[in-house]
């Protein structure tokens, strides 16, 4: 029997609490129960037909099966530059200020490698998408978690970021932010981001903004890009992904844009790590960005309708919910009669008595244990079924 291996990095990881709910969900389905899954944020809408058609066409060309460029093919990077000009009024150099990544998770994780090392620190929001917290740790750095706040707006979070930087030692080199925010749905106005950019100019800080929900917003509100801020390319980089905007989750196409030396540093590291996304996917993504101009708005409209169905339904059964202005999620404080259970036990109860799966808030970090996250990944009929199940099973509402 070989000696047990002492692994690196993973021993400090807490249990991935979402697997607990997945196991219960699978067990319930094996019993023949119909579980409405509003847990895992996996987009269910089909990718644009133009992307599928172009992928199939490009895959027939054997030349496209060779190694590609880790930075992304030139036409794809130009398409991203055109998107930023069209969508945000921002001019970016596709040669020096844009790089393709194999999804935003890969881009963010490897970005932390070039910005941080043991002894460094980053400021990250909490609760948050897990990789935003754990990415700095994987790089050997300290992640100083700053509460995101009540989920209404980002102004208080930005105040707390500035305070944490002033009080901390060593001074954090990176500030991670993401608006609209997963899981709390907190939003930022352009003035909030400008204040942070102005603050960062006088300090040795890189701002890393994950704009995963750039096009998923409701009630006429439009999320800003940090690149719209004056001086942003001096201090900030931003991740833009096709996962949500174009419902292309499995394709793994995202981009890092912004400060030239940071984009170049990630490009240098990636040249050692990969040869980029499969070239037919890059070609399909290029055509999609250039030609499927209305698709993000169509996707957003679907999610807005689902948000209304869920939030209106929950409010009708006595679960007080504020409608989020963006993302594909609803961040819901556990009803007071059940709050002391904590989010894992409450999520278990919801599966067992309501036939609905949700994500426990504690899985997103400190401050999340009084919440669960609903993902808007089922149609309105199924959401209605979930609301009826919750009404029947949560008898204390």
From TrEMBL:
<dbReference type="InterPro" id="IPR004838">
    <property type="entry name" value="NHTrfase_class1_PyrdxlP-BS"/>
</dbReference>
<dbReference type="Pfam" id="PF00155">
    <property type="entry name" value="Aminotran_1_2"/>
</dbReference>
<comment type="similarity">
    <text>Belongs to the class-I pyridoxal-phosphate-dependent aminotransferase family.</text>
</comment>
<protein>
    <recommendedName>
        <fullName>Aminotransferase</fullName>
        <ecNumber>2.6.1.-</ecNumber>
    </recommendedName>
</protein>
<dbReference type="InterPro" id="IPR015421">
    <property type="entry name" value="PyrdxlP-dep_Trfase_major"/>
</dbReference>
<dbReference type="InterPro" id="IPR015424">
    <property type="entry name" value="PyrdxlP-dep_Trfase"/>
</dbReference>
<dbReference type="InterPro" id="IPR015422">
    <property type="entry name" value="PyrdxlP-dep_Trfase_small"/>
</dbReference>
<keyword id="KW-0032">Aminotransferase</keyword>
<dbReference type="GO" id="GO:0008483">
    <property type="term" value="F:transaminase activity"/>
</dbReference>
<dbReference type="InterPro" id="IPR004839">
    <property type="entry name" value="Aminotransferase_I/II_large"/>
</dbReference>
<keyword id="KW-0808">Transferase</keyword>
<feature type="domain" description="Aminotransferase class I/classII large">
    <location>
        <begin position="34"/>
        <end position="376"/>
    </location>
</feature>
<dbReference type="GO" id="GO:0030170">
    <property type="term" value="F:pyridoxal phosphate binding"/>
</dbReference>
<dbReference type="InterPro" id="IPR050881">
    <property type="entry name" value="LL-DAP_aminotransferase"/>
</dbReference>
